[in-house]
Design goal:
- The protein has a single domain, classed as Nucleotidyltransferase, domain 5, CATH 3.30.420.240.
- The two termini are 28 Å apart.
- It is built from 5 helices and 11 strands; from the N terminus they run βββαβαβββααββαββ.
- The radius of gyration is 16 Å and the shape is globular.
- Helix content is 33%, strand content 22%.
- The strands form 4 sheets. Strands 3-2-1-4-7 form a 5-stranded mixed sheet.
Amino acid sequence: MVGNHYVMGIDTAWGKTGSYSCAIVLDRRTGAQVAELHGRPDLDELAQILYDMHVEYNRAYLMPEWAGDEDEGQYVVKKLVELGAGPWMYYRDPDKRQQPGFVTSGTTRPYILALLEVAVRKKAIVPQCRDWVLEMMSFVRDEKGRPAAAEGMQDDHVLAGALALRALDEAPMLDNEVVKVTHTWRKKDERSEYAR
C-alpha cells in the first residue's frame, strides 16, 4: 500500500534438501502478514528476490538471520547490503554498521520465539499463511526442553515470523513517513502491545 511501512524477517537456508528459505513481510502499523517467500532458490537468486521484495514493500526494514560465522546465509545478507538495502537493515552494532543481521544463538533464539508466542496469543500479529500457522501448531519443546519443530516438521516460517516480529521493535521510528537511517530502540506504543 502506498505510504505504508513494512518489516521483513528472513530465515535463509541453502541446498535443495532440508530447510527452506523463508521471508515474512508484516505491516508495521497492524502486524498483519502481507507477503512471504518460501522455497529453495540459489543464494544469489534468493538475495535478488529479497531485495526486490524490500523495494516493492516501500523499502521494508530487514531483519535477516545471521546464524553463525560459517553460515551460507551470510552471503545473502552481504549481497543485500551490496544491492543497496543496507540502510534499511538491522545491525548488531548500528553505530559502526558492523555485522548486519540478527545473530541467533542459544539465548537470542528462545527469546524471539517467546515474543512470537506472546504476540500470537495476544493477536498482535495476523498470520495469513496456512503453512505458517501449521508450523506454529507443530512447534514444541524437544526432549532437552528447547523450542523446535516436531519431528518431520519444518520451522522456517516460525523463525522468519519471529524475526519479522523483532523487526517491528527494532525498525527506526518514522518521521513524516521518512525512514531514518540511525537505529534506535522503539518506544512502547499501541503497535507493540506484546512488549508491554
